[in-house]
Design brief:
Blueprint: H1 8-15, H2 18-21, H3 27-33, H4 38-49, H5 55-59, H6 61-70, E1 78-82, H7 91-95, E2 101-105, E3 115-117, E4 119-121, E5 124-126, E6 132-133, H8 135-146, E7 159-163, H9 169-172, E8 181-187, E9 190-198, E10 214-218, E11 225-230, E12 233-234, H10 253-267, E13 271-279, E14 283-290, H11 297-301, H12 306-318, H13 324-334
Antiparallel strand pairs: 1-7, 2-3, 2-7, 4-5, 5-6, 8-9, 8-13, 9-10, 10-11, 11-12, 13-14
Helix pairs in contact: 10-13
Length: 344
């Protein structure tokens, strides 16, 4: 079986691996800290728990959204799907008057190819940064998606046009002109680690860490933010907004955990990452599921994944048929973080 492709999150860990070495850690010390690298992740958690036949359920965002809706989860509304170059000329009709939207490849990864549009100025489309795109620019971007420029393996792709999330006010305050998302990493249906990814001016409205976004670790037990990093460096405030990032209570945390467990149940994947956004009016929305979740989440939380994964492996061995509520209760009890003062 070929090696799994390296995702953008993984590139972040590779390029910022010095974060763990800042105190001159030796390999043995890194193991003691429980740091999981790409090879360990693939050999011990991906390959044994994620059958190849299930990858299509999450590598194709259209299939993932359909599955989520079948299981009663809220997802971002789909405005249209561009399947051919001819359809690229029909984007305006697909939008049906919506001036704010997101275009993404259905088989993309790591945020590549995601275009966020905040509104219009005449005929031009305006990005969160204020930069404008002409209708021709938009068609070119869609054409690049169709050609597979951003897809896994470079295969031809479709362009998905969907509702742009209007994030809850508390989260809007933590992100620069972009909608922050929440990543929950799961093993055997147990939430093991979580972070919020907030955009910066540098990341141009996107929430990908390798593009300059901020990773904010979240306590699994309570949904309170406990730590933050920017380019691998610990921070406490947003570099553009100056707002405190630590001690923030994430809204509807119990719902987010339940949605994450449901994503594991509906896909059958043993090890996965679930991405969720919280809309101001629609509440938590399932955005996508990742069968190869990156490892930068360890830096955001300041703890190695192995410290969480090994207890879950043992618990799953003892209770392979535990239900959703038991799994969430186990994670909340065993992975509770030392909490900072809560900011309201």
């Amino acid at each position: 079986m070929p090696d799994e492709p390296v995702t953008s999150d993984e590139k972040t860990v590779s390029s910022e691996h010095h974060w763990w070495h800042r105190w001159f850690r030796l390999p043995g010390e890194l193991r003691e800290m429980g740091v999981v690298g790409i090879n360990m992740r693939n050999a011990r958690f991906l390959l044994p728990n994620n059958p190849r036949r299930l990858y299509e359920l999450v590598d194709n965002k259209l299939r993932t959204k359909a599955l989520a809706e079948e299981h009663g989860m809220n997802v971002a509304e789909t405005y249209g799907v561009v399947r051919t170059p001819h359809d690229a000329n029909k984007v305006d009709k697909m939008l049906n008057g919506n001036e704010s939207f997101v275009i993404k490849p259905t088989r993309g990864s790591g945020g590549k190819g995601v275009l966020v549009i905040d509104g219009k100025n005449g005929k031009n489309f305006v990005k969160p940064s204020g930069a404008e795109l002409t209708p021709g620019d938009l068609r070119n971007h869609v054409s690049n998606i169709l050609a597979g420029l951003f897809s896994l393996g470079g295969k031809r792709d479709y362009a998905l046009i969907e509702y742009r999330v209007c994030p809850a006010a508390l989260l809007t305050a933590m992100s620069f002109q972009g909608a922050p998302d929440i990543r929950v990493v799961m093993l055997h249906g147990y939430p093991v680690m979580a972070m919020l990814r907030a955009s910066t001016k540098e990341s141009d409205g996107r929430s990908n860490l390798h593009q300059g976004a901020i990773g904010v670790g979240i306590d699994i037990a309570t949904g309170i933010t406990v730590r933050a990093i920017h380019h691998g460096n610990p921070v406490t405030t947003h570099p553009d907004l100056g707002i405190e990032l630590i001690g923030v209570q994430i809204p509807e945390w119990d719902t987010i955990l339940k949605m994450s467990v449901t994503c594991q149940e509906m896909t059958g994947l043993g090890y996965l990452g679930v991405d969720i956004m919280i809309d101001e009016t629609k509440g938590p929305l399932m955005i996508e599921v990742n069968a190869r979740p990156g490892l930068a989440i360890q830096m955001a939380n300041g703890i190695g994944l192995m410290k969480r994964l090994e207890p879950v492996v043992e618990q799953h061995r003892l209770k392979p048929n535990a239900d959703m509520h038991a799994k969430i209760a186990f994670s909340q009890h065993h992975f509770r973080a030392k909490l900072p003062p809560v900011r309201t």
